[in-house]
Design a protein that fits this description.
With about 190 residues, the chain is α/β, with parallel strands linked by helices. It contains six helices and nine strands, in the order βββαβαβααββαββα. It starts with a strand and ends with a helix.
Length: about 190
């Protein structure tokens, strides 16, 4: 059985993708982008290692077939990511959005089998010097790619949004800020 490092699973998620979804934060990221709001996901922790099927079971327990996978860097666990996506597709998930620091050309060249299971992708490393006006990306160098044309109307509306919203949740006495705040706000939060 394949293991996977997961920092957080949260439902309902309203700020990282269109409509109500479940969010999955992978652990492990070698990019180390300065000003990243998710620095807590950079290191893989043994206590957060789980089986892929166990994670899929949990995701299927929520009242949605839409998922956002972020991190950390999901593609730094490619075998686990592939198996998780295959499992979710078998179980009827209809909308998979993935955030990655890798650019789409690299992913197409190296992870085409995984991209075939993804409906939309936001690519590119976070750059604290390039403020974005769009609600779905942290910096202006990042792009949204709609990989499933059937979902194009939904994702075009998501792309057009400029509303910056975040969710603040308390899970097991740990506070998480979900979503993509403005860079200025992120810098204030990360400094503390």
């Amino acid at each position: 059985m394949q293991d996977i490092y997961i920092d957080l699973i949260h439902y309902p998620l309203y700020v990282l993708g269109p409509r109500k979804r479940v969010g999955v934060w992978f652990e492990g990221c070698s990019f180390g982008c300065v000003g990243c709001i998710s620095q807590h996901t950079w290191e893989q922790k043994e206590e957060h290692q789980r089986g892929v099927v166990e994670v899929a079971d949990e995701l299927c327990g929520f009242d949605t077939k839409r998922v956002t996978i972020t991190g950390g860097e999901p593609f730094e666990q490619p075998e686990a990511l592939l198996l998780l996506l295959q499992e979710l597709r078998k179980r009827g998930f209809e909308d998979v959005l993935v955030y990655s620091g890798y650019e789409i050309e690299y992913l197409r060249k190296n992870f085409g089998e995984i991209l075939a299971l993804i409906d939309a992708l936001v690519d590119g490393r976070f750059d604290k010097n390039r403020e974005s006006q769009e609600s779905y990306r942290g910096s202006s160098n990042q792009e949204l790619y709609i990989l499933n044309e059937d979902l194009a109307p939904l994702y075009e509306a998501f792309r057009a949004s400029t509303r910056r919203e975040v969710q603040i949740v308390d899970i097991n006495e740990q506070v998480y800020l979900l979503g993509i705040p403005k860079i200025e706000d992120t810098q204030k939060i990360v400094r503390r």
